[in-house]
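The authors assume throughout that readers already know how a fold can be written as discrete tokens. What matters is that the chain and its backbone geometry are given together, residue for residue. A single example would do more here than another paragraph of explanation. For illustration, here is how one protein appears when written out as sequence plus structure tokens.
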Amino acid sequence: MQAVEKATGKKIEGVIENAIGRFSDTEITQFRQRVDDLWIEPENVFQSDPADGASGEPLPSDIETILSKAAGKLDEAPPEDRDEMVNLMEDIQDAARDNRLEDARAFAKELEEILFYIG
């Protein structure tokens, strides 16, 4: 599997082994689409108000690192954790897009806790 982040061109490649036996084809397609939506769309850039005349800023590196780790651990996570991880990754992206850095950091902290327990 390969994911490409349009904003930075960053590529992530991985192999998922034995992860599909528990899920239906529909569930697998939905998981793939959710992950693709996170990495293919240029959402991890802060969008500034055009009235301000400022351009977007890249995500802080600590949050970017957590998102990258989470994307790499999705296939290892139990189903309930996987769903929560995907939701938190989406929440981080949404908060960043809406210039809510404090919220993005709070979501990143929750995601980091899940990553700690997964190992």
